[in-house]
């Protein structure tokens, strides 16, 4: 079965990669692609439709899934439209930077439609999350610091992936809280987790967790070298989720199957 995918934010850094990744996937095709100004930039291989007509495009094209990499407000609007659509359409989003309130509303969409949110669609990051949890369990009392580095156009900090890694660190050890961008005269507080967000040039995305103590250090690093890796993971997720029943799914559900 060919899974028909609608792409939002199609002229964005990720939207363009998603259009290309759908084209490369043997079981997927673009149902339609939207951006807010379809008269502006072009995307090779697909006509662009106006984002303002997203609801009616869902009705006329009946895609199996939407793949969304936009911004938190837009992602929520697109998810609401999928919930309201007559035919079932799954919503796969990699958008990050949601407020707690917005994220709760996004997750509620999973009561009506198949929903999958992942802050990082690189398979290596899923492995990193697992390994970080194990390292924290194995090294109680070690100082933990997290450094994430991205291009200078990224809006949210810390990154969605950093937040996911922080949850994994905190779930697997005893910590005193997070210290974002340390400064001042005080030494490191025992048990704090240092969090550092670098923004520079066109770096695709790096995450490093440092664990240090006992005259030794462990550094666990993931480096994405091309955005295509995120897009391929998101399209794999869309192909997997099409036809699933309503519910909230994780990228690990796709990888582990
Ligand atoms: N989960 C993952 O693996 C990854 C997640 N991301 C996340 O994806 C999101 C998009 O990243 P990226 O493609 O680099 O961003 P870009 O700014 O390059 O693209 C975002 C696109 O979203 C659309 N958009 C809709 N509403 C808004 C809004 N209110 N503000 C800005 N843009 C809006 C715009 O397209 P238009 O005007 O055409 O509608 C824009 O082109 C971010 O949240 C990022 O963190 C990024 C990489 C990987
Ligand atoms: O904005 C980006 O570029 C990226 N965002 C995601 C995040 O916030 O974790 C994933 C990836 O690191 C690239």
TrEMBL record:
Chief site of localization: cytoplasm
Alphabetically ordered keywords of this record: Amino-acid biosynthesis, Cytoplasm, Diaminopimelate biosynthesis, Lysine biosynthesis, NAD, NADP, Oxidoreductase
Gene3D superfamilies the record matches: Dihydrodipicolinate Reductase, domain 2, NAD(P)-binding Rossmann-like Domain
Domain Dihydrodipicolinate reductase C-terminal: 124-255
Enzyme class: oxidoreductase
Pathway in which this enzyme or protein is active: Amino-acid biosynthesis; L-lysine biosynthesis via DAP pathway; (S)-tetrahydrodipicolinate from L-aspartate: step 4/4
EC nos: 1.17.1.8
Active site: 150, 154
Catalysed reactions, as listed in the record: (S)-2,3,4,5-tetrahydrodipicolinate + NAD(+) + H2O = (2S,4S)-4-hydroxy-2,3,4,5-tetrahydrodipicolinate + NADH + H(+); (S)-2,3,4,5-tetrahydrodipicolinate + NADP(+) + H2O = (2S,4S)-4-hydroxy-2,3,4,5-tetrahydrodipicolinate + NADPH + H(+)
Region (Disordered): 170-191
Gene Ontology MF terms: 4-hydroxy-tetrahydrodipicolinate reductase; NAD binding; NADP binding; oxidoreductase activity, acting on CH or CH2 groups, NAD or NADP as acceptor
Positions contributing to (S)-2,3,4,5-tetrahydrodipicolinate binding: 151, 160-161
InterPro entries: DapB_C (IPR022663), DapB_N (IPR000846), DapB_N_CS (IPR022664), DHDPR_bac (IPR023940), NAD(P)-bd_dom_sf (IPR036291)
A GO cellular-component term linked to this record: cytoplasm
Residues where NAD(+) binds: 9-14, 94-96, 118-121
Record localization: Cytoplasm
Biased composition (Basic and acidic residues): 180-191
UniProt GO BP: diaminopimelate biosynthetic process; lysine biosynthetic process via diaminopimelate
Residues annotated as domain Dihydrodipicolinate reductase N-terminal: 3-121
Purpose: Catalyzes the conversion of 4-hydroxy-tetrahydrodipicolinate (HTPA) to tetrahydrodipicolinate.
Similarity comment: family membership: Belongs to the DapB family.
Xref: PANTHER family: 4-HYDROXY-TETRAHYDRODIPICOLINATE REDUCTASE 1, CHLOROPLASTIC-RELATED, DIHYDRODIPICOLINATE REDUCTASE
Name of the protein this chain belongs to: 4-hydroxy-tetrahydrodipicolinate reductase
Source species: Natronobacterium texcoconense
Taxonomic classification: Archaea, Methanobacteriati, Methanobacteriota, Stenosarchaea group, Halobacteria
């Amino acid at each position: 079965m060919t899974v028909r995918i609608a792409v939002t934010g199609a002229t964005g850094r990720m939207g363009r990669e998603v259009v290309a990744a759908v084209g490369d996937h043997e079981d997927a095709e673009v149902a339609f692609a939207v951006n807010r100004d379809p008269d502006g930039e072009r995307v090779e291989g697909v006509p662009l439709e106006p984002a303002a007509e997203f609801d009616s495009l869902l009705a006329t094209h009946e895609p199996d899934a939407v793949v969304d990499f936009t911004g938190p407000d837009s992602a929520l609007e697109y998810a609401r439209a999928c919930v309201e659509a007559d035919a079932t359409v799954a919503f796969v989003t990699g958008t990050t930077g949601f407020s707690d309130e917005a994220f709760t509303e996004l997750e509620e969409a999973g009561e009506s439609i198949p929903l999958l949110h992942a802050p990082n669609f690189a398979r290596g990051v899923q492995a990193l999350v697992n390994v970080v949890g194990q390292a924290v369990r194995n090294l109680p009392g070690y100082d933990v610091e997290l450094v994430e580095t991205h291009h200078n156009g990224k809006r949210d900090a810390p990154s969605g992936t950093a937040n996911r890694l922080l949850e994994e660190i905190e779930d697997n050890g005893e910590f005193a809280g997070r210290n974002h961008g340390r400064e001042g005269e005080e030494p490191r507080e025992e048990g704090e987790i240092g969090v550092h967000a670098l923004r520079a040039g066109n770096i695709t995305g790096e995450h490093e967790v440092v664990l240090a103590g006992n005259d030794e250090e462990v550094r666990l690093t993931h480096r994405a070298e091309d955005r295509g890796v995120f897009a391929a993971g998101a399209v794999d997720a869309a192909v997997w989720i099409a036809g699933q029943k309503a519910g909230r799914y994780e990228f690990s559900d796709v990888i582990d199957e």
